[in-house]
């Protein structure tokens, strides 16, 4: 049970870092909500607007780029 609690805490921390980075890059809150709903349901998602960037990435793969 403790491992599950720690894993949940780690995910929450990672996602909070992702959200803060998105806010710093002026991503609208409605896009964050849609992204989170897609993440939870397992659908491909992307918060990127430029078509030249990769689409369908999860927050875990997008996070390091935002935090640079």
Please tell me what the overall shape is: flat
Number of structurally distinct domains: 1
Parts with pLDDT < 50 across at least 5 consecutive residues: 50-59, 62-68
Q: What is the averaged pLDDT score?
A: 72
Order of helices and strands: HHH
Region (Disordered): 45-68
List the keywords.
68 residues; mainly alpha; 3 helices; flat; disordered C terminus
Describe what is shown at a glance.
Residues 45-68 are annotated as: Disordered. With 68 residues, the protein is an all-alpha fold.
Describe this structure in words.
It is a single chain. This protein is mainly α and 68 residues long. It has one domain. Helix content is 65%, strand content 0%. It is built from three helices and no strands. Helix 1 packs across helix 3. It is flat, with a radius of gyration of 13 Å. The C terminus is likely disordered.
Map the helices and strands.
Layout lengths: L1 H23 L4 H13 L17 H8 L2
């Amino acid at each position: 049970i403790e491992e599950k609690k720690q894993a949940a805490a780690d995910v929450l921390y990672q996602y909070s870092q992702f959200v803060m980075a998105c806010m710093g890059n002026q991503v609208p809150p409605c896009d964050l909500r849609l992204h989170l709903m897609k993440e939870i349901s397992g659908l491909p998602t992307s918060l990127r607007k430029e078509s030249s960037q990769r689409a369908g990435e999860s927050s875990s793969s997008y996070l390091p780029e935002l935090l640079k």
